[in-house]
Design goal:
The chain contains five helices and two strands. With 104 residues, the protein is an alpha+beta fold. The chain has a two-stranded antiparallel ribbon. The two termini are 27 Å apart.
Length: 104
Amino acid sequence: DLPAHACSIAEQCAKQLDLSFCGIDLMYELSSGDYYLIDCNISPMFVNFSYASGIDIAAYIADHLIEIAVASSKQQSRSISLLREIKDIISTDPEIRKQLWKRK
């Protein structure tokens, strides 16, 4: 969880670039407690972090994007069902997971 001022930096950056999804890199300065924007990735890749940490970042992102889609009145229910199905297959099928890790 980020403090409100760090979230604000990320949100403002995404808004300025007209991005609904991106990866934001922030640097935290211990002495001042300030956060600084380092990088904005319009196509963020979390494979290396997932591999190193054992955390399924892609599943968390997929869940979040599905929640956004559900909240949007413009999304069709079939599209949302398909997104959920794809996410479940990718996160539970060991062969697909192996192939994704090999691409690293």
